[in-house]
Amino acid sequence: MTDCVEIALTSDTAALHWSCSAWDVRTGTQLMTYRNGGPSGPNTLLTVSNKFVVAGNLTKPILTIWPINRQEPAHVKYMLPATAGAVAISPDGNHCLVAHLHSFTVYNLHTGASMATIAHHYGKVTVLRFTDDGTHFVSAGQDCRIVVWNLARTVQQKDAGRMLYELADFTLPVSDVLVGKGGMKAILAAVSLDRSAKLYELATGRILLSVLFPVALSVLSLNALETELFVGDKKGLIYACNLQSVPRSKEIHLQQDQLERSVFRGHKKSVTCLSVSMDNETLLSGSEDESVIVWHVRTRQQLKLIPHKAPITNAFFIVTPRSMFDQSREVPITFPPFQKMVSTRQDRERAIFELPILNKSLRERSTSGLAIEELLPTTVGFVNNISKGTEIEELEQEVQRLKGINQRLYQQSIRAIMNEVEQ
């Protein structure tokens, strides 16, 4: 068991001994490997609720899911319409976006239902990103456009072909997109092969800043405070841009000599992945030169080099999952296979959800720390096992308490909405 707060999850195009692997970034030690999933494609490797690892195969139309503490994947085959170009999963773990060629499909992970298939882009979709509240998502690709979507409207198939809005400010394919913190009030950042990095206001699509570099850009990342922007180019260099020094104009042209003071040198080929640690002190980068490098941000010095067998497709920091190193713990994969046909409204209304039962009394839980995902299964378990009047009374009291909380949340939401309207 490692005591490292954050570890790195990486993958390459070879997958000789494993499909993806977890690393201790301080020592370069390999902590866990996930096998028999084939090579993982770019922007297709991610984790779900710190319990599962999901990866899209680079050469086959298959999605592979591993329990976080097992090297072997689930026996269920998650077949896709085509090879996954990008994969994204909502923060609550309910919905999965899978891009294939110029379209993408929205799946419900708990039922396997295909909720909607959107074919809006003219080129291959290479990037899918959710907002941190899971209400909206962003798609981008080789048609030089970035499109913002509302998840609820897309799932309900209401104006499914109509996006919230789109950005068409790039002249060459979009390489990478990043959505900051704050839901729809977040910052949307993107880089393109046309050498530009742009920052937008996600709620309105208004451009905040455009920085033009002397070389084509391939990937970007923001630190947790969103005060520093890191971009990687096709030549293997990484640049750091301080966003606190406000420019006088929205468009800035940077020359090579201006970038020398904030460049990270170490990769020999195109940078494919960038990730910043939670403390903003460490930068993780992957490249086509078959290496992953851990950097110290302030000094721009290499802390650790992790060699691989092929070009890197994914590399990012994750918080160390507690269950990753507990082999005795069972983490069942309850996700059914994906359906091929888009489900109808009647099918979704007849959907049945199976919830695990937790044999834990209400008194054993802290009232102040009650979790929503813990409340529902426990309540279901008690409904199925009620035998005494005292338990019924406890449940009724709990229901009344939750109704009071819901009423207060509703009133607070109304006041917030009215304040925004008056402003």
Automatic annotation (TrEMBL):
PROSITE patterns: WD_REPEATS_2, WD_REPEATS_REGION. Keywords: Repeat, WD repeat. One of its GO terms (biological process) is rRNA processing. This is Uncharacterized protein. SMART domains: WD40 (SM00320). SUPFAM superfamilies: Quinoprotein alcohol dehydrogenase-like (SSF50998). GO terms for cellular component: nuclear pre-replicative complex; rixosome complex. WD repeats lie at residues 118-151, 264-305. It holds the Pfam family WD40.
